[in-house]
Write a structure and sequence with these properties.
Helices cover 36% and strands 18% of the residues. The protein is α/β, with parallel strands linked by helices. The protein has a 7-stranded mixed beta sheet with strand order 11-10-12-13-15-14-22, sandwiched between helices. A 6-stranded mixed beta sheet has the order 3-4-2-5-6-7, sandwiched between helices. Strand 20, helix 17 and strand 21 form a beta-alpha-beta unit. The radius of gyration is 27 Å and the shape is globular.
């Protein structure tokens, strides 16, 4: 049928789209391609992949649903969005699993091919929701996407099963038309991905083009949407995920230190991609070891540091538990070691593909004895690059293991990243000892491996085999300066306090905590860490939009804290700490600063929502300021704002 109506183009400032289907429907690939198209167009964006832990959950079931959400805009944004404006559901289970998140009036595009009585019944539908009025609050576009896909690729002689696998590309083509996305990058991607399978390549490209062309002719779509490119600081950008940014940051840190890098790791969700990416970067003097277990991985990394390299190990919470003894050995040896914990929902195996930030107390205290470590946390996918460089700086400069905290939300999510110049990155000096640094009692030159830099308290670091600098290492307590084994009580006390003082001294090189308090009159501070940065920022902006006075600060250094943190906390009447755990940072702040912070804790395996945080923040502002005005209700007003993201400021 040829279109006879004029297509209206409607201007939008932002859109949230969610692709959802069976875990075998290619929703992550579809989302990745739409994200690539959007990034090349120049929108700001933020993504949230969400998929089951099972390699292949039963098809058509609720546990098997996989989704990918993308928020893109013509301005700066901070989150993947709370709720989708457009849901593309590829089967009944995808519709049912995601409909609760879809606001009234949103567009729902549904593939009707699997809406059979049997499939509906297995997920709890007694009637077809497309026919019983259940979806009347939404703009529903019901299409047999599978059937149209099979028809569009029939010339390639594929079986119906193989042909139907291209339905995700048909859906991608349709949505690309609807939002006027550039399509060249997707076509080139398909040509490369399936270069060795010409029929599959051509079928996917044909399905993609057919979906795009269907939008031009279908009466179901009388409107297309335009989201203009975002105005961003001048520079070179690329879309990047947290794990990829972390891998690049580790390499950049090693390069700035002039050190070879050795990664010892065991595959674990959601950290495995860091190992995969680093294995491709051998040209940067990177060696990757896929060890037989977590303990072997960290042992190889620590051994590499002893040998004069930058040792790195990556894992998630369960693996960090296994690495604890060797990390403690790194504390005793006082060697550089970067330990990346990509947190996931626990305890035990927990929910491997879901996000959480509940490892803070584990990495702070989860070793025997007094074994203090620096801890840094990334706040966004792109920030994983900068935090990896910072971790390398601290590890090499202070001769200590450093914990880097990321999580599944940051690891798998993506956003535009302004690529920094190499010259803008800090120079990191390993300051190897290359000659004797002391004189023995007999007057001969000697090497004292635990002779310390008076400024940093870092011990000397000599590469094994350097003439005249032979020394002993091991897990037994060291004698001050000589490094010899010592059981002397006074020496043990001295070494314990010295190692603690070394970590505490790192605070002198950390920037003071920055507080965003526009007019300086707020009585409530919202303090976050890690991946709560985006949701907190979006929630704070909502509250400010409806007239609330609120301050915000975010911690990237969790041990030691910035030197001015105590003064900042004491300057506000109330301090709210939102976390994806049961209040771990709140506990640390109460203990250290004797401030009765207000904890907001959620552990659902999903990022915090901007609307829910806005309501919590607004209510606390009302309570603190004594506002008793029925007309204001800051919390509910902020939570119920719609299309608010254009008010978000610079990232």
């Amino acid at each position: 049928m040829n279109r006879t109506v004029t297509i209206e183009v409607k201007q939008l400032d932002r859109v949230v789209i969610r692709f959802a289907g069976d875990s075998g429907d290619g929703m992550q690939l579809t989302g990745d391609r739409f994200t690539a198209e959007t990034a090349s167009f120049g929108n700001d964006l933020s993504t949230l992949p969400n998929f089951p832990a099972e390699i292949r959950a039963p098809a058509g079931t609720l546990p098997g649903v996989s989704s990918f959400q993308l928020h893109f805009a013509d301005h700066d944004i901070l989150t993947p969005g709370d709720a989708p404006d457009v849901l593309i559901a590829m089967n009944p289970a995808a519709l049912k699993a995601n409909l609760k998140d879809v606001p009234r009036g949103a567009t729902v595009i549904v593939d009707t091919a699997d809406f059979t009585a049997r499939n509906l019944k297995r997920i709890g539908y007694d009637e077809n929701p497309l026919e019983n009025g259940e979806l009347e609050a939404y703009h529903v576009v019901a299409l047999n996407l599978t059937g149209m896909t099979v028809e569009s690729v029939k010339e390639f002689g594929l079986s119906r099963k193989d042909a139907s696998r291209a339905k995700n590309m048909y859906a991608l083509g349709l949505v690309s038309w609807l939002f006027q996305r550039p399509v060249e990058s997707t076509i080139k991607f398909l040509e490369t991905k399936f270069a060795s399978k010409p029929d599959i390549r051509d079928a996917n490209i044909a399905a993609f083009r057919a979906g795009y062309n269907f939008g031009e002719t279908a009466e179901e779509f009388s409107v297309r949407y335009e989201v203009k490119p975002a105005v961003m600081p001048t520079g070179t950008y690329r879309n990047i995920s947290g794990n990829l940014a972390l891998a690049y940051g580790l390499v950049a840190g090693a390069q700035r230190a002039g050190l070879p890098m050795v990664l010892g790791a065991y595959p674990i969700t959601p950290a495995s991609d860091v190992l995969h990416e680093l294995s491709k970067l051998k040209r940067f003097n990177v060696t990757t070891i896929q060890a037989e277990d977590e303990i072997a991985g960290v042992g190889a990394a620590l051994g590499a540091s002893f040998g004069g390299a930058l040792g790195v190990t990556t894992s998630s919470g369960p693996g960090i538990s296994l690495k604890s003894e060797t990390i403690g050995l790194g504390v005793m040896l006082e060697l550089p070691l970067v330990v990346c914990d990509i947190q996931r929902a626990g305890p035990s195996t927990g929910m491997p593909t879901k996000t959480e930030q509940a490892d803070l107390l584990q990495v702070m205290f989860g070793r025997n004895g007094e074994a203090p470590l620096p801890i840094v946390a990334a706040q966004s996918p792109a920030d994983c690059f900068a935090i990896a460089v910072e971790a390398t700086r601290i590890a090499v400069t202070y001769r200590t293991p450093v914990i880097v905290l990321s999580d599944g939300y940051l690891a798998n999510g993506s956003e535009p990243w302004q690529i920094p110049s190499v010259e803008s990155l800090p120079t990191i000096d390993p300051n190897f000892t290359v000659e004797p640094n002391a004189t023995a009692a007999d007057g001969k030159p000697a090497y004292l491996p635990y002779l310390r830099d008076p400024e940093t308290l870092a011990r000397a670091w000599a590469i094994p085999g350097t003439a005249g600098l032979d020394h002993r290492i091991g897990g037994l307590e060291k004698e001050d300066k000589t490094g010899n084994i010592s059981y002397d009580p006074a020496n043990h006390d001295l070494m314990i306090r010295t190692r603690q003082a070394k970590i505490d001294g790192i605070a002198r090189t950390i920037e003071p905590l920055h507080v965003d308090d526009p007019d300086g009159t707020a009585k409530v501070l919202v303090l976050g860490w890690g991946s709560t940065y985006g949701p907190i920022g979006a929630g704070v902006r909502r509250v400010r939009t409806v007239g609330g006075k609120i301050a915000q600060a975010h911690l990237r250094h969790l041990n030691p804290f910035p030197a001015n943190l105590g003064d900042v906390l004491r300057s506000y009447d109330k301090v709210l700490v939102p976390e994806m755990n049961l209040g771990q940072l709140a506990m640390l702040l109460r203990a250290k600063y004797l401030i009765d912070v207000v904890s907001y804790a959620q552990v659902r395996g999903m990022p915090l929502g901007a609307a829910e945080l806005a309501e919590v923040i607004g209510n606390l502002v009302e309570e603190t300021e004594g506002i008793d005005d029925d007309a204001r209700h800051l919390g509910s007003a902020a939570a119920n704002l719609t299309h608010w993201d254009h008010l978000e400021g610079a990232r």
